[in-house]
Amino acid sequence: MQYEKLFSPIKMRGVAFPNRIMRTSMVSGLATEDGLVTDLLKERYRREAKGGAGSIVVEAAVILASRSSFNLRISDDSFIGGLKALVDAIREANPEPKVGLQIMHFLKISRSGWRQKVEDFKPEELPVIVEQHAKASRRAVAAGFDFIELHMAHAYTLASFLSKINKRTDRYGGRLENRLRLPIEVYRAVRGAVGETFPVGIRINGEDFTVEGNTLFQSTRIARRFARLGADFISVSAGSRFEDALPPAPNMPPDPMSGYSGHRMSPWWWFPDMAHAYLTDGIRKYVRDGGYDAPLVTVGKIRTARQAEQILSEGKADMIGLCRALLCDPDWPVKAKEGREKDIVQCTACNWCLEADSRFEKVTCSRWPEGAMVAPEPFLPDMARPSELPEDATL
Ligand SMILES: Cc1cc2nc3c(=O)[nH]c(=O)nc-3n(C[C@H](O)[C@H](O)[C@H](O)COP(=O)(O)O)c2cc1C
């Protein structure tokens, strides 16, 4: 087989992931306004499961009771049934991929332009955040997920505690050791809640890409600390912070995607391919030098199986995250494995999907036929909507 490393299995706490392709978390806008699983959401994941990715991280599920329209929720036990039906539906479509759930605590924003900051939390509110993560992870286990990813990247609560922009003056802010405290408490509580045999990974920013934000220097230290604690994988994302966001349009909340930091999360077509591989490479080296073997997941405009195999062969990462590429063509993995790469419908990194998410609309792909809500099955290049962007942009 051509892409031996990409299609080799990997184990985490005894759980076998059939290959190195991880479909990273992607908010779909397909949950109900109250955060419940819908048939369309199930259909989206069922379609993706059939395409051969070794693991799927189901989109960020909110763990706190505050309103967050169209985001999945896992903030009380009433959500377990819907999430279980989702996992069952995915498994019925294809029992092979491991199915994880990303759990997320967010900082509130409002249409007035106000946004909550980590400095706003009173000390007595922090144990509540820890407890919310622990309870949500128990629910994820009850719903039948194979693993959990703790969201510590982008503009969310734990990322904001980790970031250098955290200026709290108590034990939870300021120097790195303090900024790590809440995320570590969360990790430990989640580990306690799910037990020793259940994989728990984290997602962090390799770099915040904002003034005063974390750089690779901080993220290497953060990653090594979580590797030491036993995190089962470390997924490296980037950017998507509010600090350099543009002023929002009237009556719209601030948009973390609007500044340069936002542009780094899902690199646009004009970014080089494999845009974050160097971050994962730096982090992986530092984690390995510390003597830890936690797998590193890289992501960011990885377009071809050849690129993915190269990253793995050069030891820059242990797993390949694909997000938009699999939204566009869920069969990317199976087509690559079977040597049918010419049949892959290429994501052009146009960020139509991301812009829909920023408008709180349902996320779709610009290459799908008009009106489609999931990728056609089968989906071949001659069925795709033409793209005005270059399909073959490389370094
Ligand atoms: C519409 C959309 C929604 C996303 N939602 C999430 C999310 O819920 N959690 C997360 O960690 N990353 C999220 N991401 C980031 C992706 O997981 C991924 O890191 C990013 O798109 C870069 O990978 P890619 O080039 O393969 O798309 C989202 C990206 C897009 C385009």
Concise structural overview:
The chain has 395 residues and is of the alpha/beta class. The protein contains 13 helices and eleven strands.
List the helices and strands and how they pair.
Layout: E1 10-12, E2 15-17, E3 21-23, H1 39-49, E4 55-62, E5 72-73, H2 80-93, E6 98-104, H3 126-143, E7 147-152, H4 157-162, H5 176-179, H6 181-194, E8 200-205, H7 216-229, E9 234-237, H8 260-265, H9 277-289, E10 296-298, H10 305-313, E11 319-322, H11 324-328, H12 332-337, H13 352-358
Parallel strand pairs: 3-4, 3-11, 4-5, 4-6, 6-7, 7-8, 8-9, 9-10, 10-11
Antiparallel strand pairs: 1-2
Helix pairs in contact: 1-2, 2-3, 3-6, 7-9
The structure holds flavin mononucleotide.
Q: Can you walk me through this structure?
A:
- The chain has 395 residues and is an alpha/beta fold.
- It has one domain (10-383): TIM Barrel.
- It has 13 helices and eleven strands.
- It has an eight-stranded parallel β-barrel with strand order 3-4-6-7-8-9-10-11, surrounded by seven helices.
- Helix 1 packs parallel to helix 2 (80-93), helix 3 packs parallel to helix 6 and helix 7 packs across helix 9 (277-289).
- The longest helix is centred in the middle third of the chain and has 18 residues, at 126-143.
- It starts with 9 loop residues before the first strand and ends in a 37-residue tail after the last helix.
- The model has no long low-confidence stretch (mean pLDDT 96).
- The structure holds flavin mononucleotide (FMN).
- Flavin mononucleotide (FMN) is lined by residues 24-27, 59-60, 102, 151, 153, 203, 237, 265-267, 299-301, 322-325, 353-354, 357, 363.
